[in-house]
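Anyone up for a design puzzle?
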């Protein structure tokens, strides 16, 4: 956001929370998440969330930025989310946020998996053919 805004527009500006405090809010009575270093109290939104309560509860007390962005929320959803901001993550704690480990899907035995991609279906086809032949011969 360019320029400064009035305190009435964004009363949460300048209100910092430590990461330890945010992590305490990880239950259904108090559910806080972090998005782009801003703290959101989504407790009242749990029942209304289109993706279900579980999605928010899994991220409670931690950084949900990557998951939020991966889903591809609409402009309306982003605008609505601003009503839940209660403060910002303290600048000293921003480096403490755990970066999600990159999940790479690889096969450790690529040679073994390549032959099983055709052998298993071939065996299944032979078994089906033998069962069909047995059924037809009766």
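Challenge accepted. My sequence:
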């Amino acid at each position: 956001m360019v320029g400064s805004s009035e305190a009435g527009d964004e009363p949460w500006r300048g209100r910092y929370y430590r990461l330890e405090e945010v992590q305490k809010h990880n239950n259904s009575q108090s559910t806080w998440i972090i998005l782009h270093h801003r703290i959101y109290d989504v407790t009242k939104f749990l029942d209304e969330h289109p993706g279900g309560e579980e999605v928010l509860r899994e991220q409670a007390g931690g950084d949900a930025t990557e998951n939020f962005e991966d889903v591809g929320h609409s402009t309306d959803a982003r605008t609505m989310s601003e009503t839940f901001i209660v403060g910002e993550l303290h600048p000293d704690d921003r480096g403490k946020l755990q970066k999600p480990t990159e999940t790479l899907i690889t096969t450790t035995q690529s040679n073994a998996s390549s032959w099983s991609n055709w052998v298993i279906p071939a065996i299944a086809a032979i078994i089906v053919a033998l069962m069909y032949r047995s059924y037809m011969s009766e």
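A detail worth pointing out: The longest strand covers residues 30-35.
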